[in-house]
Structure formats: C-alpha cells, structure tokens
Amino acid sequence: APIQVYIDPTLKRIYKQYVRLIRRLRDLDLVTFTQNRKEEAGVFFVKKTDDKIRLILDARRSNRCFLSPPGVSLATCETLARIEILGPGGLEPDSPELQEWFSHYPACLGIGDVENCFHRLKISKGFSEWFCLPLVRARDVGLEGSYLSGVLLTGDSCVYPCPSALPMGCS
Predict the structure, then answer these.
(1) Distance of alpha carbon 36 from the chain centroid
(2) Which of 152, 102, 161, 108 is nearest to 134 (CA)?
(3) What are the contacts of 154-158 at 24+ separation with CB within 8 A?
(4) Which of 54, 100, 124, 139 fits a disulfide with 155 by CB distance 3.0 to 4.6 angstroms?
C-alpha cells in the first residue's frame, strides 16, 4: 500500500513556517537543494527528555527502496562485567609482581554519547535525493539567480530541500 509521509501539521498548513525551518537548516548546512527528487520524506519533531526537540524525517518511503542492513552484535552490560584479564602464569593473585605486570597493561573502558551523531554524518547529493522534503520556491530560500545542477533558477523555480547529513529516520 502507498505510504503517505507525515509532515508536522503546522509546517504543512503554514508555508512561511516551513520556509523558516528550511532556511534555518540551510544556514546550519543541514540541507541542500535539488530538482531531482528520487523519493519524498516528511518532517516532524519529537520532544527530548531535556525539553528540547529532535528533528525527524519520515523516511519510510525511502527506506523501503533500500536493502535491509546486516545485523550488528553489540556487547551487553553483562558481557562487559565479565571481562577478565589474565596475567602471566605462575604469579599469585594479588601479588605485588602481578600488580606490577598489570600496571604496564592498563585496561580502559568508557561510555559516551556522540552529540547530534546523525547530523555529523554527511551524505552525498545523490543519496540525499532519496529524502526530499516538500517543494519550496527558490526565492523563498535565497536561491533566485543561482545555478542548481547547471540550471539558472528564477524566483518561481521550485526546488526540493534534502538533507546534507544522514537523516534521523533513515534505516
């Protein structure tokens, strides 16, 4: 069955709000523009736990065009808790010799979260065209008089904003 992409109701209803978002994303180098849409994506927001919002692209239509990615096996907390480092044979546990030996082989573990991870993963123009957002007029996003893929844009030329980084929603 055809998938109707979801677009935030305010953005769908109020073109000026949508253009404002696209201009902001352009200023942050998070969108590029094309006239060659391969697939359509929607756009909406979800609340994060810190009262900020996260931008999500509804990429369901695009995702169905791609192969499923291979599985990934990651260690669990239990796996990390069971890590054992064995020293050389013949040294007694807790002996000063074993402690000295271990001091030359530090084991370090860390955790972290890569802030804005998806937005840091830049993608090619060809790939970005699989995630095109609704059309905007060139004049509304400052592209009037510029060239896009060798075509001079007029103010009334229509262009598709598309992500310049891996969209959250791509799978």
Answers:
(1) 21
(2) 161
(3) 157/35, 158/35
(4) 139
The predicted-structure confidence for 44-72, as pLDDT tens digits, reads as follows: 999 988 888 988 999 999 999 988 878 88
State residue 51's pLDDT score. Answer: 86
Amino acid present at 140: D
Does pLDDT of 117 surpass 90?
no
Q: Which two tokens stand for residue 81?
A: 């808790």
Q: Is pTM beyond 0.90 here?
A: no
- Which residue in 68, 48, 65, 62 sits closest to 133, CA to CA? 62
Neighbours of 11 (CB within 10 A): 20
Per-residue model confidence as pLDDT tens digits over 11-44: 999 999 999 999 999 999 999 999 999 999 999 9
Q: Rounding to the nearest 10 degrees, give the CA dihedral for residues 137, 141, 145, 150.
A: -80
- In angstroms, the CA 45 to CA 99 distance is 53
